[in-house]
Fold this protein.
Amino acid sequence: MNQRVSVVIPLYNAGRYVEEGLQSVLKQTFPVYEILVVDDGSTDDGPARVRNIAQGKPMIRLLQHPGGENRGPGATRALGVAEARGEYVAFLDADDVWREDKLERQMKVFVEHPDVVLAYGRELVVDEHLRPTNINGMTVLGGGKPNVPTRVFATLIRENVIPTSSVIARRESILGVGNFRTEPRDHFEDWLVWTRLAYFYPFLFLPETLAYYRTHGENLTTTYFFPNRQHIRHEVGFIMNLYSYLKNRRDTDSEEVRRSLRTSIVRLLLRARSWGASREELQTITASLTQAFPDEARRVRILHHCSLLLMPQLLKMLRRFRRRLAFSRA
């Protein structure tokens, strides 16, 4: 069987880290077919550093959006997948690092389990100097039922337990569910692709550290989501896109999709409340959901009123507990 692996690395102002990430790919014990670094309109020296490393290494290609635009992580990963020539695509964020035998461990999965389309593992949370640290109290990311093909759709609609830099997947399958979303620039584009795939195919979780998630002051997690709660809007977009897609496919179970949608709506409203969403914000969420899914309008309005009766601090504690539990299951 063909086992050519393309590695897609989105690059945006990560010049300080991209060389270390690239070296961790070049040192893999499994041979990499090509490395696609996709520049997302960087304004630092990241592209120049990539060109320097790529000298004499035709396997490394530096791609850009037309006109050198900044288009966001979804469009950037989508371009990498579209240009990839390998049967498998592995993802590495430019500021993260792989363990040397990551690909070797994962490629055995596809040989032993030909029905699996995506394999993932754990990521150790580290600081900018690769020293162990934590993010929101979690020292390790990634969880699931270990070492067996598993349908994880029901898990993913509740929590994204798949760290992106640990993922390798069949390219044909990613394209088959529409690739990464390019517009609008919602920042759950990886979660959306994993969840679409998980509806149709089994995944396999390796319960070991395969990558190192570097946290620093410029991570999206730090600079984008937490200060202004825009992640609420992006999660609304995730739900609307996921279920509109599943409802429009002829090979889905409409009743299962309906039940899952209701689960996601409950989860969204409770999470928004736990994040401190105001009454006005909750009303906006409710309006968006009822417009997108008119058959669920009455249920959404009831859930909206119920969520207002719950204490945000209690919901916040429960949300953090459940997230830690999700990552600890292995």
About this structure: The longest strand covers residues 203-214.
